[in-house]
Amino acid sequence: MSANVKDHDVVALILKDHRTMEELFRRMRSVEADRAAALKKFSALLIAHGEAEENEVYGALKRFKNVDNEEVEHGEEEHEEGNEALLKLLEVDDIGSDEWDERLEELVKAVTHHLDEEERTILNGARESVPDDRRAELGAAFLRERDKHLAADCGSVENVRRIVNKK
């Protein structure tokens, strides 16, 4: 795999975002961290990542034989669950309150479940079935879409509410 192909491998890019989300969860749980900043960053990343997967990656992966179409559709359902849990957390004004902590744990549970399942099913299927050059093309499309959403303040409570309500 050449450097350019490797840098844009859609599987590697998605996994990198997953690890960033987990790090942001740790920061949101820490009383010593800037929890509001971590939530703002997480919210933008979760929305941009999910929208980019659904718009640029999932549909393309369904065409490959070792990628389970039902798992891809299930992944979209799990994005909705994660977005709903995110909205519930964003709607709590008092960061660090008992209610905020409870909703954070609901979000962590929903998203962590999705990351684990997606990595074991969809992404492993993509590794097995999708040629390197196609994974690089998908990675470039994923990044463009993701960056477009990040630039548009996609993690704002208003935008998350709009996404949740349109489903």
What descriptors fit this protein?
single chain, 167 residues, mainly alpha
Topology:
Layout: H1 3-7, H2 10-29, H3 35-61, H4 69-90, H5 98-129, H6 132-151, H7 157-166
Range of helix content: over 70%
The H/E string reads HHHHHHH
Task: Give the termini separation.
Answer: 38 Å
Number of helices, counting only DSSP H or I runs of 4 residues or more? 7
% residues in beta strands = under 5%
Query: What is the number of strand segments?
Result: 0
Short account of what is shown:
This protein is an all-alpha fold and 167 residues long. It has helices at residues 3-7, 10-29, 35-61, 69-90, 98-129, 132-151, 157-166.
Protein model, in words:
- The chain is elongated, with a radius of gyration of 16 Å.
- The chain has 167 residues and is mainly alpha-helical.
- The chain has helices at 3-7, 10-29, 35-61, 69-90, 98-129, 132-151, 157-166.
- It contains seven helices and no strands.
